[in-house]
Amino acid sequence: MSPLPRWRQQFLIHWQCRRVKIGLSATSFAILTSLVAATVSEADKRHPSGLDAPASDGAVETPRREATLTGDARVADVRAPIEAASSESAPGQLVNAGAIAGRVVSCAGPIPGTRVSIGGRADSATSGPGGAFELNDLPPGTFDLTFEAQEQQGTIAGIHVVSGQTTDIGEINLTDVRADPNHCGRCGTRCPPGASCAYGRCACPAGLTLCGDTCTGLADLEHCRACQNRCVAWPNTIPRCGAQDCVFQCFAGTADCDGRRINGCETQIDRDGRNCGACGNVCAPGLRCVDSRCQ
């Protein structure tokens, strides 16, 4: 058997020894098959001397002068569709693609069935029973995610995807703690009845002030003209909130004659001869104080 032409040897060595780990599409495979078949057919027609095979009349034709592809050129032509196909590991699947993973929750727990999508792309995923999701086959880059649940929505921007890696963004809480009066500022913080949540803080209606967990007009005994200014019931007194501060009213027949709030209305003016009916009203000698009158 005559030896193979050198260009054919080079082509076969290059083809058999090159380790190409790819998944060819049907189109690329057909192109490769036709090019290899054409190369082998052309080689078989040629004489080992490099001349065309003898004609039917025995004459030998001179070498052709037309432009022909060398073995290396043919390999280069074959390599183009191979490299194009090697950018995909399977039809529609990127090589070295990245992914985004996370878990969709609310203050009440996981949110299954949430649609997670990327703005401007058709890629989407749906969260499972535990709220977990994963978006696969993403090219490297930065993306914005949109979350759509039955009653809650949200977005998160600037998720960076790296080639061949999964970016885990952790838990995404769709509860709007900036505006939810049942979870204001954080999960579990409930605003008082009638109050709203604005920018993560409870806000009372106009004319009322938030004191702790209560909306008040600052005119009650617990918050008199200021939060936590509590009006205390001293002995023999009835406390109330005055125009500027706490005041108290004495029980009938009593008075605050020493001016000390701590002991309340300490004087019994209904029967004290030195303070009969009023502080400092002294009954004359021989008279008694009865029902706030000297008798």
Name some characteristics of this structure.
4-stranded mixed β-sheet, 4 domains, 4-stranded antiparallel β-sheet, 3 helices, disordered N terminus, 295 residues, Immunoglobulin-like, 27% strand, alpha+beta, 18 strands
3D structure, described in words:
This protein is an alpha+beta fold. The chain has four domains: 6-55 and 67-93; 96-173, Immunoglobulin-like, CATH 2.60.40; 176-217, no CATH class; 232-295, no CATH class. 16% of the residues lie in helices and 27% in strands. The chain has helices spanning 6-17, 26-44, 71-86; strands at 88-90, 93-94, 98-106, 109-110, 115-118, 124-126, 132-138, 141-148, 153-161, 166-173, 196-198, 201-203, 209-211, 214-216, 237-241, 246-250, 289-290, 293-294. Strand 15 and strand 16 (246-250) form a beta hairpin. The longest helix is centred in the N-terminal third of the chain and has 19 residues, at 26-44. The protein is rod-shaped and about 145 Å long. The N and C termini lie far apart (155 Å).
Q: What is the name of the CATH architecture of the largest domain?
A: Sandwich
| CATH superfamily placement of the largest domain | Immunoglobulins
How many whole angstroms does the radius of gyration measure?
A: 48 Å
- Contiguous helical run count: 3
Distance, first to last CA: 155 Å
Reconstruct the topology from this structure.
Blueprint: H1 6-17, H2 26-44, H3 71-86, E1 88-90, E2 93-94, E3 98-106, E4 109-110, E5 115-118, E6 124-126, E7 132-138, E8 141-148, E9 153-161, E10 166-173, E11 196-198, E12 201-203, E13 209-211, E14 214-216, E15 237-241, E16 246-250, E17 289-290, E18 293-294
Parallel strand pairs: 3-10
Antiparallel strand pairs: 1-2, 3-4, 3-7, 5-6, 5-8, 8-9, 11-12, 13-14, 15-16, 17-18
